[in-house]
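Marked as duplicate of an earlier ticket. Keeping the data here for the record.
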Amino acid sequence: MLKNTITTLRMIKFSHTLFALPFAIMATFLAGQGGQGGFCGWDKLGLIFLCMIFARSVAMTFNRIVDADIDARNPRTAARAIPAGQVSKRNAWWFLTVCAGAFLVMTYFFWKPMGSIFGFGNYWPLIFAGPVLLFICLYSFTKRFTWASHFWLGASLMMAPVGAWIAVCPPEGPILSLPAWILGGAVLLWTAGFDIIYACQDIHIDQRDGLYSLPAHFGVTLSLWISRCCHSLSITLLLLLALHAHLGIIYLSAVLVTALLLVVEHLLVRGGKMTHIKIAFGTLNGIISLLLAAATICDIILSG
């Protein structure tokens, strides 16, 4: 049982939850106290944490199921759990169904109480729950018809801070404000930028199988420039967030470090070299999300 659980978590790359989860937590502090900034409470934070875990598990499991045949033809991904026979598609579907059900239950608890706990009268998370799951699962099909799939993935990760913002704000509205959209846009562009870099590994596989990606469509050189533009715009939006969310020197210092880390990321893959892709894609972007979230929280708490 434990072995199967570990295999399943490896299948969905559970550790990559660090990409989106910190931004969801960051949004809860920005949206707290009616949008003035502050702690939303452990109960809401706990529900948001669980919603993030279950929603991402649904999306990644669905991706592994529908891409199983594609993964089997790619030497880089052939060892993944489903094509390698470590997890059956049937078990993967069961896992997906359980996670989807758990996600819906968590969003319900924002509206109605469970016994004497939870229940905040906020029905919006439950209303958006189904469309959100549909949107993030549809990403798995985008490489079959559009090279803009990287931006669909970015929009899927954007759901983390935007959804958390909606869950924290009073249901009577406004459920979203300008800082929420700015943060969401920054996450979208940041994600699209690093996903373009990641896709450079599979350019020949994508071309062979008729799959769509920016590197397969435009080539590595132009794609890396598009990635740089995405990250430059993301930094611009993060700076704009400081203005509209009244964030201070701690947050701005973190944005500066983030910009430097993104420069390092692009230097590591300069010329299309994928030797250090694990550091450029995984390590640096994980640090960026944690850094920005921690700086934002500290800035809000210390400013009172």
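See parent ticket for discussion. The chain has one domain: 2-302.
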